[in-house]
Amino acid sequence: MNTAPHFHDDYMAAWNEAMASGDSGPIESFLAPDYHGWLGHAAATAHPFDGEAARKGFRDTVSGMRGSTVHAGFRTIASRGPDEAVVCYEMTYRSGSAVTGRALLMESWERTDDRWTLRRDFTEVNIGDPAGQP
């Protein structure tokens, strides 16, 4: 049985480390050099972003929400071979037990030189009420 931490569990731990400290470095360490994606409040209106814009967004998020935590719900990880995976999940941002934000993500990951990196993602932010919340 493989008891090694899963790469995506490590990524979520990096998010929580960053949210606790206000430093996005732990998150950024997972990004591929050509990381990019699409972000919006709805799929039809998502806008592309590049790595530079993403890094600024991560810095703004962790400094602005310092002390909050993130949680991955409804996560599905699908292998696309030994060195590629797609991860789909709902990320909730919480302050104590209160959900303060929600994002739906689809991420493309690649293992290069025995290290998993996030290559690109599609993110819809603040969509509806989080599951199980009033």
Notes on the protein architecture:
This protein has 134 residues and is an alpha+beta fold. Strands 2-1-6-5-4-3 form a six-stranded mixed β-sheet. The model has no long low-confidence stretch (mean pLDDT 90). β3 and β4 form a beta hairpin. The chain is built from three helices and six strands.
Short structural description:
This protein has 134 residues and is an alpha+beta fold.
Set down the secondary structure blueprint.
Blueprint: H1 7-21, H2 25-28, E1 31-40, E2 47-50, H3 51-64, E3 69-79, E4 84-95, E5 98-112, E6 115-125
Parallel strand pairs: 1-6
Antiparallel strand pairs: 1-2, 3-4, 4-5, 5-6
What composes the largest sheet? 6 strands, mixed
Overall average residue pLDDT: 90
Task: Specify Rg, calculated over alpha carbons.
Answer: 14 Å
Give me the count of strands. Answer: 6
Biggest sheet: strand arrangement: 2-1-6-5-4-3
Helix and strand run: HHEEHEEEE
- Identify the overall geometry: globular
Helical proportion, percent range: 10-25%
Poorly predicted residue ranges: none
Q: Counting H and I runs of at least 4 residues, what is the number of helices?
A: 3
Beta-strand percentage range: over 45%
**From the helix content, strand content and strand pairing, which structural class follows?**
alpha+beta
Q: Please report the distance between the alpha carbons of the first and last residues.
A: 39 Å
Keyword list:
134 residues; alpha+beta; 47% strand
